[in-house]
Amino acid sequence: MDVSNPQLLLKRIVNVKVIVTPLWKDEVQQQLQTQINQLDQQLQQLDVEGQRAIAAIQKQSLQPPGPQTIQQIDNIQLQVNQKKSELLEQKNQLLQNLQQVQFLESDQEVNQFQMEGFFRVEPGDNLISKMQVEIVLRDGIVEEIRGDI
């Protein structure tokens, strides 16, 4: 390494933006719909598993069920309801995202995600400007790199 020109390798967050196109909108809507369908399947499976667990406990217990059996059934129902609530909250968020995507205008830029990237810095560099880098994609292809690389 050349000690007369010291350099340092640092990591930065790079914002990745996309330009809204009909293709991008279709892909995002399909992904969101797939996730919504998966959550619906999980909700149905959760109901079935909860009913099975309750039926198994009822089958093994005395009739009429004692207080311990009732408590076990209540606990299972509580767990099922809590998990259902989490899944429904996720589904609601996905439905909101789907609605937002439908209202996006073509050629509008939206934040897609963030990723980490490495960069070199040396004496005299403006660290702030080197930290502010964005990549802009159109249908998955890099259209522009903004900032001080």
Task: Give a brief rundown of this model.
With 149 residues, the chain is an alpha+beta fold. The chain is 54% helix and 24% strand. The protein has a 4-stranded mixed sheet with strand order 2-1-3-4.
Topology:
Blueprint: E1 8-19, H1 22-60, H2 67-102, E2 109-121, H3 127-131, E3 134-138, E4 141-146
Parallel strand pairs: 1-3
Antiparallel strand pairs: 1-2, 3-4
Would you kindly provide a written description of the structure presented here, covering whatever features stand out?
With 149 residues, the chain is of the alpha+beta class. The protein contains three helices and four strands, in the order E-H-H-E-H-E-E. The protein has helices at 22-60, 67-102, 127-131, and strands at 8-19, 109-121, 134-138, 141-146. Strands 2-1-3-4 form a four-stranded mixed sheet. Helix 1 (22-60) packs antiparallel against helix 2. The model has no long low-confidence stretch (mean pLDDT 92).
